[in-house]
Design goal:
binds coproporphyrinogen III; about 350 residues; TIM Barrel
Amino acid sequence: MSEQSRLLKALAREPVDTTPVWLMRQAGRYLPEYRRLRERAGSFLALCQDPPTACEITLQPLARFDLDAAILFSDILTIPASMGLGLHFVAGEGPHFEHPVRTPAAIDALRRPAIESDLAFVPEAVRLTKRELAGRKPLIGFAGSPWTLATYMVEGGPSKIYRHVKALAYDEPAALHRLLTLLADTTADYLNAQIRAGADAVQIFDTWGGTLSTTAFETFSLAYIRRIIDQLDPAPVIVFTKGGGGWLESLADSGADALGLDQTLSMGAARARVGERVALQGNADPALLYARPAAIRREVAAIIDSFGPHAGHVFNLGHGVTPEVEPDRVAALVDAVHEFGTG
Ligand code: CP3
């Protein structure tokens, strides 16, 4: 049963028989069986919005690899998509919003989505997937951090410089706080719907928190991650702030059970800084999966060795699996984690 799973034990910093492993973006374009479904569906959002398809894609990597958890196939942008901003995924360019939210008036015109009507396909996909998993492996639900969602909503798509959202933070902080409050409260409802549908743990993806100054991170990202966690039903919470290595201590005080680390810190140094307060998840460079199995094995052993013989390590990458990866490299990594893993 998933209650006994390595993942949930490690998140609770309890001893395990070997280190558990799952990978961000473990389902997706590097898998030919995903690409086939994607071609048939026509659009990425159509895959997310059809629960049987989302369930099938969620399970695809578990059929190939000895992963210790499934992560729901969906996207962090389902929430802004449900607010009528006209989201499209443009091939090779990523997400694009037809109606970005750049002014206080546009922020105040936003409507809070109701999960049970506007986003019912997400908890429904959780329920279907839990039924298929039948307790064999735990299921992770997820959402984006309010700051990360706001970057896409204000910029209108991916950005390198965050011109509009950062200008808003300096020029109209009260309006940005209203947007982040709306996103945090909606996200708490959204994660609670996933937990009530059976998600065994949830991860908050703060992918763009690391682009902020220390003060701005506390004000515009961490405060709203806390606001979400404070409203959640009981379930282990993993917070992944990419580029957040400078702020581990304050992240460890956010109420999270575990922190996801990118590859820029050593696991050992990170563990020394947070002690027993939280479990740690990470942190192989995603580019390790371009290397041959011998190098993958060496690096996995080094990361596990760096963490040391303590409870509370969940192995993962420092960011998601990329589309160029050959699936057999993922198998080599997963098997090496179990071989070199510790309790
Ligand atoms: O981890 C998993 O396997 C679950 C699925 C998952 C997806 N997106 C599927 C996806 C998860 C957890 C996400 C989270 C997500 N989405 C994040 C946070 C984590 C991260 O990667 O930084 C962000 C920032 C997004 C927003 C998003 N969605 C972008 C920027 C893109 C385009 C970039 C790209 O890789 O194409 C997406 C699309 C997306 N989300 C795809 C998948 C499988 C590719 C869509 C396709 O098939 O064309």
